[in-house]
Design brief:
728 residues, alpha+beta, 5-stranded mixed sheet, 11 helices
Length: 728
């Protein structure tokens, strides 16, 4: 059973054994002390105030007892209780937050074979900065509600913090110390009562304070009524969007269910950020869709889908769109009054966008074995699924739910078709597909069971795996089903009947015929109610009556949701088998008939091949005879042909050139003989010449030699005299 619920085998890792020893000291409260980014799992160790990391890609390759995890020690460990880890987009910083503070931990670089931190060093000291330590600690009434990294930051180092005093605080964490850039009030600050007991802000009880926020898709800054969630299809491919000209709207949720939109740029400008709201919700409801709202989530689809969760387990799926131009503004004039009349200097502007609620989902908080469980409430925490926008997760004190929204794919196709990107739009019936809620993990069976909340939820990259940390320290890792990619609409052929081709492109009969059999079977096996993985706390001791009710409920669920569907699937398979058997029998008959035809064709081919060989031999014989006849005819012609005439002219030219070359050769030979005779005469003359000196020449030479001898003797005497005079 352990292997079925923990596919990665993380529970036996030494990392989680260390974490499991310290989880009993934590308060029973739903948290998120794990985070996964780039296949690296981060887990907060509350005992040693450090961060433990593990590469989930190599989790199955390593042994369970090996020390394959790394420890990141903060230089300034946070002194507050940690409840959530939030990683930025570039995986360079991680925010460690709790009710009494926020700390930012700088992650070291990764390198090596497995891309570990600092090449696989076991313990690494990392710089940790506390964000406004004195502000949160010294003020007993100020708590941190939520912290998210701003997606519009160029350096990915801007952290937006929502506080219990109904305001935003924007910090830049890229420098040596986190700097407070802006403070954005969201309304009146809650004041405390003057009772002697614990002071509770009365605005919190009325639901007039912000409890959660999320970022919507960016919009142009200078646009008065920007399109929400639409791409500018008229923009050229070479145009560039200025980052300073866009703003990321922040959707703020209050406890009473009101949603506000805050447009505030990251630049330090003197202009106050505009707060729009509360956003109108259509169709209107008397209770404003619940008075115990706790979480908000904005799915980055086109158009954006906003999810609002209440503590009673109700989820509202809304589409964020622009308000119609013909809306009656006077109808909601009282609900859109500005805060300036209450003595605030921060005014509230009329919103240009609205929420259109198209679906509400009731979550099952626990297995509800008794009637008291129907009134159980707890905060619902919403989590993004980075692999797809059509799925998200809910964690609470009683387990984990997976929400699938298949209509988002068709909604995006519908929006693109109306923007002119595709000529065809899907039928509106596809947008009516309801979302499905699957109860993955259950930690509570009845109101008498001890509280066992979820302490962490993370999702790895492809293939997506859900990692959940329970209050007992056990890890549940489940492989998530793959989400099908949206298929682009088929472009019809321009054959003069455009309307008919568009209707045929989304024909239900064609879809049914092209649908694979396994997909058809999966539709039958898809059940509305799921049986979650039951993970109770260590102190849970259900009574025999509860165990009997649990077995009865499971048996009844299997009978109604599983066995009947399996019977239907069996009937479908038997029907398909009968159809395939009939097709097989028909195909066997066709094969037998084709074998007979093949034998006939083979005989005919052999007969034709023999005829072809005979015809080929006869053709070659006739060709040779025709060539001989043509040669004989050409030889007996009395007139020369053009080729023969040309050959005769060439022969005459060659003959004349040969005569010229022969004369030139004779001249060359004559010159050669002449030069040979001249060379012989010259050689003989050279041999006859002799050197001879006459008597006159000999006498002159002797006289000169005698004179030179006398001069040399006189010079020698003069040298000797000079030596004697000089005493040398």
């Amino acid at each position: 059973m352990e292997g079925c619920t923990d596919r990665l085998g993380l529970s036996e890792r030494k990392l989680f054994k260390i974490v499991r020893e310290n989880l009993t000291k934590l308060n029973p409260k739903t948290r998120n002390i794990i985070e996964c980014k780039e296949d690296v799992l981060f887990v907060w160790n509350s005992k040693d105030n450090c961060l433990l990391t593990l590469n989930v890609k190599t989790a199955k390759e390593d042994h369970a007892d090996s020390r394959s995890y790394q420890t990141l020690l903060p230089t300034d460990p946070p002194s507050f209780e940690v409840e959530r880890l939030v990683m930025n987009g570039t995986a360079s910083q991680i925010a460690i937050m709790g009710p009494k503070g926020v700390a930012v931990l700088d992650l070291p670089r990764r390198w090596g074979k497995e891309a570990t931190f600092q090449g696989g060093k076991a313990v690494i000291t990392c710089r940790c900065r506390i964000v406004d330590d004195h502000y949160f600690v010294c003020s007993p009434h100020v708590e941190v509600r939520r912290a998210r990294w701003h997606p519009g930051s160029r350096t990915d180092a801007h952290l937006l913090v929502l506080t219990s005093e109904n305001s935003f605080r924007l910090y830049e964490t890229g420098g040596s110390e986190p700097q407070l850039k802006q403070v954005w009030p969201l309304g009146r600050q809650p004041s405390a009562t003057l009772s002697s007991g614990p002071r509770l802000p009365f605005l919190v009880g009325l639901g007039d304070t912000a409890v959660d926020f999320d970022f919507a898709p960016p919009v142009p800054l200078d646009s008065k009524n920007p399109p929400i969630g639409k791409e500018n299809t008229k923009r050229g491919a070479t145009d560039r969007v200025d980052p300073n000209a866009i703003v990321w709207p922040v959707l703020v949720l209050r406890g009473n269910g009101d949603v506000y939109s805050v447009n505030a740029p990251l630049s330090e400008s003197s202009e106050k950020p505009t707060v729009h709201g509360p956003l109108s919700m259509y169709p209107p409801a008397d209770d404003n869709y619940g008075v115990d709202a706790c979480s908000v989530l904005c799915l980055q689809s086109v158009p954006p889908v906003v999810v609002i969760a209440t503590c009673s387990g109700t989820l509202y799926h809304c589409v964020l769109l622009n308000c119609a131009e013909d809306d009656d503004e006077d109808t909601h004039q009282d609900n859109r009054s500005s805060w300036s009349q209450y003595g605030s200097t921060y005014s509230l502007h009329t919103p240009d966008i609205a929420l259109y609620v198209f679906e509400s989902v009731e979550l099952e908080l626990g297995l509800a074995l008794d009637d008291d469980d129907d009134t159980y409430t707890c905060p619902i925490h919403l989590h993004h699924d980075n692999s797809t926008d059509s799925r998200y997760f809910c964690t609470h004190d009683t387990g984990v739910h997976m929400m699938s929204l298949p209509f988002i794919v068709h909604l995006e196709e519908f929006a693109k078709a109306h923007d002119g990107l595709f000529p065809d739009s899907p039928p509106l019936e596809l947008l009516n597909q309801p979302s499905s809620a699957e109860y993955l993990i259950c930690t509570r069976t009845s109101s008498s069971s001890p509280l066992s909340p979820i302490l962490g939820l993370a999702i790895t990259s492809t293939p997506p795996v859900l990692i959940t940390l329970l209050a007992t320290g056990e890890v549940v890792s489940l492989v998530l089903p793959s989400v099908p990619l949206p298929a682009s609409p088929a472009v019809p052929m321009l054959n003069g009947n455009d309307n008919g081709s568009r209707e045929e492109s989304y024909s239900p009969l064609k879809v049914l015929l092209k649908e694979p059999f396994d997909v058809h079977i999966k539709k039958f096996l898809k059940h509305n109610i799921s049986q979650p993985i039951l993970k109770l706390g260590p102190n849970a001791d259900p009574s025999p009556q509860e165990c009997l009710e649990l077995v009865s409920r499971t048996t009844q669920l299997f009978r109604e949701e599983y066995f009947q569907r399996h019977d239907r699937v069996r009937e479908e398979i038997e029907r398909r088998v009968r159809t395939l058997q009939t097709l097989k029998q028909h195909q066997l008959q066709e094969l037998e008939h084709m074998e007979q035809e093949k034998a006939k064709l083979k005989q005919t081919a052999e007969r034709l091949a023999e005829k072809y060989e005979d015809t080929k031999d006869k053709q070659e014989e006739l060709t040779k005879r025709a060539e001989n006849i043509l040669r004989l005819v050409s030889q007996r012609q009395p007139v020369l042909s053009s080729a023969e005439k040309k050959l005769m002219r060439d022969m005459k030219d060659f003959k004349e050139k040969f005569k010229d070359f022969q004369k030139a050769l004779e001249q060359v030979k004559a010159k050669q003989n002449y030069h040979k005779v001249q060379m012989e005469q010259w050689v003989s003359n050279q041999k006859k010449r002799e050197l001879y000196l006459g008597q006159t020449h000999m006498k002159t030479i002797k006289v000169n030699m005698a004179q030179m001898t006398n001069e040399i003797a006189e010079l020698v005497k003069m040298v000797e005299i000079s030596k004697q005079e000089l005493g040398l």
